[in-house]
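Subject: for your reference before the review

Hello V.,

The reviewers asked for a structural picture of the protein, and I figured it would be easier to keep everything in one thread rather than splitting it across files. Below is the amino acid sequence we used in the manuscript, unchanged from the supplementary table.
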Amino acid sequence: MIAIEQLAYTYPDGTRALDGIDLRVGKGESLCIAGSNGAGKSTLVNHLNGWLLPQEGAVRIGELQVNKKAVEEIRKMVGLVFQKPDDQLFMARVWDDVMFGPANLGMDEAKIRAEAERLLRIFGLWELHDKPPAHLSQGQKRFAAIATVLVMQPQVLVMDEPTSDLDPRNRRKLIELVNKLPMTRITVSHDLDFIWDTCERVCILSKGKMVADGPTKKLLSNQQLLEANGLELPLRLQA
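And here is what came back from the structure prediction:
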């Protein structure tokens, strides 16, 4: 589903955020990208739907190469939930935000309206669908942002720190939801207990390089590996 070859990216200030990343992700796979702050995680996933374009190397989604010509089609395939919900919610009402993407992609309105209502009910936001996003709590904004992506029914779902605003009950609700999703999932998170529950595979980045790639429970049980890369054991293993 996803093929990344020798991907490198340098920011204008000279920061080498990615340095020769190779990665393959199969259809329907659930993958976590882990690493300390500044490891290059967000930079990597921002290449998956064309928010960033490769400076060196290549990224392919299905049969499409990620480049300027293919960005519109790529964004129909890959849905990205940003780290900050306020970057994703900008309309006057929650409902308008959820419907914005499908309207711009020319999707069937009647079908999408039903799906939008279903998602908002799942997230406990239906009673708030006429409210401005600014009136929501941070956790409610997080769920609204996820709904704006899921409503477009992408083939790949990318989530950047999806549990950062959630209380324990809503965190559990998100775990139950994402484990039922059929699409390929890529998650960036410092919440290694969430990753333990939702991802079958983990890749660890450090200073823009891939340093480990393997089964979730094997890598997240390796205390030496985690500590060497600015991470700690999941809380369940610390006990």
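For the response letter, the relevant points are probably these. The chain has a mean pLDDT of 93. The chain has one domain: 2-238.

Happy to draft the paragraph if you're swamped.

O.
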